[in-house]
Specification:
alpha+beta, five-stranded mixed β-sheet, about 450 residues, Helix Hairpins, binds magnesium ion, Heat Shock Protein 90, binds adenosine-5'-triphosphate
């Protein structure tokens, strides 16, 4: 499966990109506003300055007189240390100030106009106003112009812009962090569903019942439908196996009985040998059919596990009693020692697991030996160990022996299908237990030990 880019990372990157765009926009906005605000401040002071000067204009002895008020320039010095220039003209004749200060269109009388120009190669902001002064018989148009360089206000605007850049960066960093949190939070339901499904055992095909967000509901429905189909399909094949095993076992029993009768009546060694081979093949098939039936039952019951509170030592004693006739045919003694061991589980499945291990112990041990069942129980775990005095598991690993239809190299002529330990492993897994195959330390010849560990009830 190719691993495509993670949704979480993609979401974080997308949100971070949006945050970056917003940060740049807010920085640009603050910069423009700062420039505009400082410009207006300077304009207002320039306007106040020209108006103050214009108000001092008067006529005296047929001449225009003015006093340059100190306050008119002091207020300009208050906003920045920029250079200030001024000029007062009467009918285009300079009365006082900088004669070479650029002129520009002035408005109606009393109205203040603004202009930006270069003066002595430095950008300046200018404000001008006109006033009509009655001088003698006529009227003189007096224009008052005040200008100021723009370094100071530019610096204030640049400072504000820098501050805005810092805040935008901080905003961006916080937004990226929050984006990661948002992405993780939005994906949590999806991860929770994935975790719930992956925590399950391999045969747990129950529907996933969770409160999923609306967006995930179709996915969950599809998943549950798939599980449903899978469960039905497994159920059908298990049913088929059960049915097939039943159908095979009955005619096999007839064939075996007939072969036994024939074996007693025929004379020739070759014929007897052939009949023995037939009987063995029938035994193998019959064993396989029986184990398949057992396996199908286990598969079905693990899916709908019964959770009874039961005593494992009682169950072991019952199973032991049922196996007693088989064991006594080979002069094998079955011994049980153990205390009461309450566990929660399915009695039929646990019985099947114990029976399969006991069957192996009896089958693979030499005659006139002992098979011991030992049960110990603690608060958290219950151990059931079944040890025999046979050849042991040899070098075969647990994983290999629990594979379906896998038999060890030590089986010789012993009939078997290779499903016994598969059944045992599945039963243990369904009960949340585990199984260990070891070599017995109780006798010098070794022997196989199978240990079940189940959670105590
Ligand atoms: N007590 C034992 N002593 C020695 N070998 C064992 C013992 N139990 C199991 N084995 C080995 O593990 C293999 C797998 O055991 P399993 O019970 O799964 O299959 P089986 O006994 O061969 O067939 P069946 O399905 O009929 O039980 C056996 O073939 C055998 O080689
Ligand atoms: Mg077996």
């Amino acid at each position: 499966m190719t691993k495509s880019q993670s949704i979480g990372r993609r979401l974080t990157l997308l949100l971070a990109a949006v945050a970056a765009v917003l940060s740049v926009l807010s920085w640009a906005m603050v910069t423009v506003l700062a420039r505009e605000a400082t410009q207006r401040t300077q304009d207002n002071v320039l306007a106040a300055s020209v108006t103050t000067i214009a108000e001092t204009l008067r006529s005296e002895q047929a001449e225009v007189r003015l006093e340059l008020p100190y306050a008119a320039f002091a207020m300009l010095g208050a906003i920045s240390q920029d250079l200030v220039f001024y000029r007062v003209t009467a009918n285009d004749r300079t009365l006082t100030g900088y004669d070479d200060l650029p002129s520009f269109e002035t408005g109606r009388q009393g109205q203040v106009m603004f202009h930006t120009a270069n003066y002595r190669s430095v950008p300046i902001r200018m404000a001008a106003t006109t006033r009509l002064i009655s001088v003698g018989d006529g009227q003189t148009q007096v224009t008052v112009t005040v200008a100021q360089t723009r370094d100071g206000v530019g610096a204030i605007a640049a400072d504000l812009s820098q501050l805005a850049a810092f805040f935008s960066l901080a905003f961006f960093a916080v937004a990226v962090g929050l984006s990661a949190v948002v992405a993780a939070t939005s994906l949590r339901p999806l991860n929770e569903i994935a975790a719930a499904v992956s925590r399950r055992g391999p045969s747990d095909l129950r529907p996933v019942q969770r409160n999923a967000p609306a967006e995930l509901a179709p996915l969950l429905t599809a998943l549950n439908r798939l599980m449903d189909r899978l469960r039905n399909s497994i159920r059908r094949s298990e049913d088929f196996i059960t049915e097939a095993a039943h159908r095979i076992r009955t005619p096999l029993a007839t064939v075996r009985a007939q072969a036994e009768i024939a074996l007693r009546t025929v004379q020739g060694d070759t014929e007897k040998d052939r009949l023995r081979q037939i009987i063995r093949a029938v035994d193998e098939s019959s064993r396989s059919a029986g184990q398949l039936l057992d396996h199908a039952t286990v598969a079905y019951r693990t899916e709908n596990l019964t959770q009874d509170r039961l005593d494992l030592s009682e169950l072991a004693a019952d199973t032991l009693a049922a196996m007693e006739p088989t064991a006594s045919m080979r002069d094998i003694r079955l011994r049980l020692d153990g205390e009461q061991a309450p566990v929660i589980g399915d009695p039929i499945l646990l019985e099947s697991a114990i029976r399969n291990v006991l069957d192996n112990a009896i089958k693979y041990s030499a005659e006139d030996t002992t098979v011991t069942l030992h049960i110990t129980c603690s608060d958290s775990e219950t151990h059931l160990t079944i040890c025999d005095e046979g050849p042991g598991f040899g070098d075969e690993s647990f994983d290999t022996l629990t594979e379906r239809f896998r038999r060890g190299p030590n089986t010789g002529g012993i009939v078997g299908s290779g499903l016994g330990l598969t059944i045992v492993a599945e039963v243990m897994a369904a009960h949340g237990g585990r199984i260990e195959l070891t070599t017995s330390t109780h006798n010098e010849r070794g022997g196989a030990c199978v240990c079940f560990t189940l959670p105590s009830a």
